[in-house]
């Protein structure tokens, strides 16, 4: 199972945003929404071996985290508006039932990075970092890798420290700094290739 | 200059679609819109060495083709709604001024694949095909490559034949069949890596 944790420094944890102007009203939740498609969807359906956490650090109800589990997810649409609409419906609820309570593979919990780390269980942490070792030449745990991904602002210093303490290995996806969803696409492809060779 | 040609078999060439339900009302123009972001945008702006053609084969005014030139493009936003809105504004116009008439790097022409091929000038053609040779082990022209990309339906048989006559080399991006925008992201990364090594 490959897992991605996208940390949205400004992405809103409340449902008070407009689907008609997602970038301007949601603290750039659009960036995270695109990561969902990249992590979970392929041409003919869902990646059943993938999971994504969206850590929402913006807005009045932050931090909260959404977890989408490819093993049990249903009706994950590729377009931003559908995905953002589903996320908004989840966020407007008063309660955050926790990672153990999932509806069609989707869960919402209070808490941010610490809550995610507690939920991950056994894993090998990696952090996507443009100045790091090229992932193509790195050893990657194919069984339980977790990739921490920054948003349009990168990572906050406190997050970097937390990930360093965790022992996360920095990996680069290439020589050009790309969007978070592209980074997830590139990691997924590298894992697909290694799995096919294994 | 790297160029991508995405062929939308159902994507509408008329502007008569709703931004509130792009997938259902535009013949899956959403697929092509996501390709624009993947081809042209990176973390800190636009790829000035990239260009994308969207061949629109659906709807009453088909075929028409949009060309977005990274050298001169401005205000290209990453979110689907903004991109789709810009495309709609272009498509609702009565006239299609042709590839030579561009506004902020964006042009609209009548015609489909043949019009694109006539516009391409000097180029080496490649066609993305999941069953083909792995791009990582292929020789790729870095000066003037053109990548033909299918939509959610793949390629029509007539398009396949046309590309074969053109001598397009089939390339695969990996062992899993991915969305068109992911394929563009993967090709772009491979080209970035080769350019960095050159």
Describe this protein's structure.
Two copies of one chain form a homodimer. The first copy, chain A, has 198 residues and is of the alpha/beta class. Chain A is built from six helices and ten strands, in the order βααββββαββαββαβα. Chain A has helices spanning 22-25, 29-40, 80-91, 113-120, 157-166, 180-197, and strands at residues 2-12, 41-42, 45-46, 50-58, 64-69, 98-103, 106-110, 124-134, 145-149, 169-172. Chain A has an eight-stranded mixed sheet, sandwiched between helices. In chain A, strands 2-3 form a two-stranded antiparallel ribbon. In chain A, helix 2 (29-40) packs parallel to helix 6. Chain A is globular and about 45 Å long. The model of chain A has no long low-confidence stretch (mean pLDDT 97). At the A-B interface, helix 2, strand 2, helix 3 and helix 6 of A face helix 2, strand 2, helix 3 and helix 6 of B.
Sum this structure up briefly.
With 198 residues, the first copy, chain A, is α/β, with parallel strands linked by helices.
């Amino acid at each position: 199972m490959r897992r991605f944790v996208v940390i949205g420094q400004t992405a809103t944890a409340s449902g008070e945003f407009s689907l008609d102007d997602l970038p301007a009203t949601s603290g750039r939740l659009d960036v995270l929404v695109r990561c969902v498609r990249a992590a979970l969807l392929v041409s003919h359906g869902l990646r059943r071996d993938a999971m994504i956490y969206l850590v929402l650090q913006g807005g009045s109800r932050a931090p909260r985290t959404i977890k989408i589990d490819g093993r049990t997810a249903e009706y994950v649409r590729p377009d931003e508006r559908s995905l953002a609409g589903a996320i908004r419906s989840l966020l407007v609820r008063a309660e955050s039932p926790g990672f153990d309570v999932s509806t069609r593979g989707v869960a919402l919990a209070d808490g941010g990075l610490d809550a995610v780390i507690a939920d991950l269980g056994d894993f090998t942490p990696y952090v996507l970092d443009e100045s790091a070792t090229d992932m193509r030449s790195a050893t990657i745990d194919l069984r339980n890798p977790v990739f921490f991904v920054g948003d349009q602002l990168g990572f906050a210093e406190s997050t970097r420290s937390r990930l360093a303490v965790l022992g996360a290995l920095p990996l680069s996806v290439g020589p050009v700094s790309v969007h978070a969803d592209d980074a997830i696409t590139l990691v997924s492809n590298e894992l697909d290739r290694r799995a096919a060779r294994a």
